[in-house]
Amino acid sequence: MYTLRATTRFQKTAAKFFAQHPDLEARFVLVAELLRQDPHHPTLKLHPLKGTHAGLHAVRLTYSYRVTLVLVVTQKTVTLIDIGSHNDVY
């Protein structure tokens, strides 16, 4: 089981994001639970980012929306960094 943490940035962005997209809150709860259980679960589509976001990973909330995160496997920690549309997050 992994520990899920959220940065202050994520908390602020998520509050705005879910105010605009309340229908995605239930989906996020499912994604968060999968991240706690196994961040490498195939349905999350976990992938490393490149360029200015090197060192970060992203998972799919929906086809259009992503959650960026730092995955520390040795400490079993997942830190949520950002949430938003593909263009907003990247």
What does this structure look like?
With 90 residues, the chain is of the alpha+beta class. It has a single domain (3-84), classed as YaeB-like fold, CATH 3.30.2310.20. Helix content is 33%, strand content 30%. The chain has 3 helices and 5 strands. The protein has helices at residues 8-20, 25-37, 86-89, and strands at residues 3-6, 47-48, 57-60, 65-72, 77-85. A 5-stranded mixed β-sheet has the order 1-5-4-3-2. The termini are far apart. The model has no long low-confidence stretch (mean pLDDT 88).
Low-confidence stretches: none
Averaged pLDDT: 88
Class in CATH?
Alpha Beta
Tally of structural domains: 1
Rg calc = 12 Å
H/E series, N to C? EHHEEEEH
CATH architecture: 2-Layer Sandwich
Specify the CATH homologous superfamily. RelE-like
Our estimate of the beta-strand percent is: 25-35%
* Intertermini distance: 28 Å
* Overall body shape: globular
State the strand order across the main sheet. Answer: 1-5-4-3-2
Total of helices: 3
Largest sheet features:
5 strands, mixed
Fraction in helix: 25-40%
